[in-house]
Amino acid sequence: WLEQVGSRSRKYRMTLAVGFRSHRKHLITTCKASLQCNYLDCGAGQCGTADVVAAYLDSDYCIQPKGDSDTRRGVFDSALCGCIPVTIVPGSLGAYPLYLG
To answer: Is this prediction's pTM over 0.85?
Structure first.
């Protein structure tokens, strides 16, 4: 898995895989307007596990806005796919800094 992930050619600079929430409107609009950003509309059923993994494998960075909980699954999924998770909101990592140093 590590060899496959590490040697993979990435098509996109970033991916945003989220459902619509009013506080994400600007992120979604900006991503959709960029050729370097891959947007998956989770509210429209585009976020099955295989879809998200494929998108994360094709991207260098994965935007991880604040989710419904501090343990947003996308942070873990993107890291496992070699896509660097990028958090936007201070404190959105909850207790992770204890583990990340």
So the answer is: no
Q: Find the helix packing angle between 73-80 and 49-57, rounded to 10°.
A: 50
Residue 33 to residue 63: CA distance in whole angstroms: 15
Q: How far from chain centre, in Å, is Cα 51?
A: 12
Closest CA to 19 of 50, 57, 45, 52: 45
Q: Residue 39 has which token pair?
A: 């947007």
Hunting for tokens 């050729």 — which residue is that? 35
Name the average pLDDT for the chain. 85
**CB-CB contact of 65 with 27 (8 Å):** yes
6, two tokens: 């590490």
